[in-house]
Structure formats: C-alpha cells, structure tokens
Amino acid sequence: MHDDFRTANLLGAAALALSDVVVAEATRAASTSSSGAAALVVLSTDPGLSVTELGRRVGLSQSAAARMVGGLENQGLVRKEASWGGWVRLRLSDLGEQAAHTLLACRGDVLRQALRQLDDGEREQLGTLLSKLLTGLYGQPGDAEKICRLCDRSACVEGGESCPVGQTDRDHRVSERNRG
Known about the structure:
Blueprint: H1 4-30, H2 34-45, H3 51-58, H4 62-74, E1 78-82, E2 88-92, H5 94-115, H6 120-137, H7 143-147, H8 153-156, H9 164-179
Antiparallel strand pairs: 1-2
C-alpha cells in the first residue's frame, strides 16, 4: 500500500523549495516584490488591465495593487494610460518588458536545473502528472490567471501543446454556458 501522507509531504516540501527559489530569482531579476514580478509577467501577456484586475490576478486587494503599481511605476517598469470612462489601463514600459523577459528566463533556468535530476522518461512522466495536478487545482473561472501568474505561457504551449490550466478554464466556461 502506498503512503499518501509521505507523498503529499514530499510534494509539499518540493513545491515550497521550488517556490522559494523561483520567487527569489524572479524578484532578484526584476528588482521588485513577488507580486510585482507576477504583475510584470501578467502585463507582458495581457497589457491594458486595470489596477483592480491586475490585483485580482496576482492575489492582491485593490488598495495593495494600487500601491504595488505605484512602486512599479516609480521604477519605470509600468505606465498608466487613460481609457474611456476614467479607467486607467496598465502597460509595461520597455524597461518593464525587459524585466519580465529576464525574470521568466531566470525562472526557467531554475526550474530546468531542478529537472536535471530526472531522466527523459521521468521528466515526461512528471509533465503528465503535473498537468493532472494543475487541472485538479483549478476550481472556478479566474483561477487560471492566478495559478499561472508567474508562468512562461509560451513554454506551456510549445510544440502545439495546450496549457492544462487554460484548457480546464475554457472547458469550465463552455460547460457553464451550456448549462445557462
């Protein structure tokens, strides 16, 4: 009989250790907080978000998001653009684009280094298992943006693959529309 408690504990330790290293590298590369790093990645793929929506995607309240955006703006990484109805849209500056690219490259290096402990077959198997785990972690619309807030989205869809979280989100939304 397999010991689920031990496997769960090992998963937790591995997830935390990887998270610590990834966040440390991302924040170092972008010279910002972990939420600031996530904001740069989010805005690199979805420019034009409001402060409130950006905050939701990185797990911050509106007031905390406004403070974070102010800091990113002071660093010259983000700029605000007026939109219709008094709304403000956020865009990365050239420096912000460069910081997002650098932090994703550093993140990828750290994660690929961790995978070097596994052979090709084990890496393929882990990829399949992680897709299942991520699908199970998705609970409702909006979770995809938060789960993938520090993801290199182009890496996830390389070679015609589909992001498991994005696919789960699309499937959930279609299911909801069909029920309505």
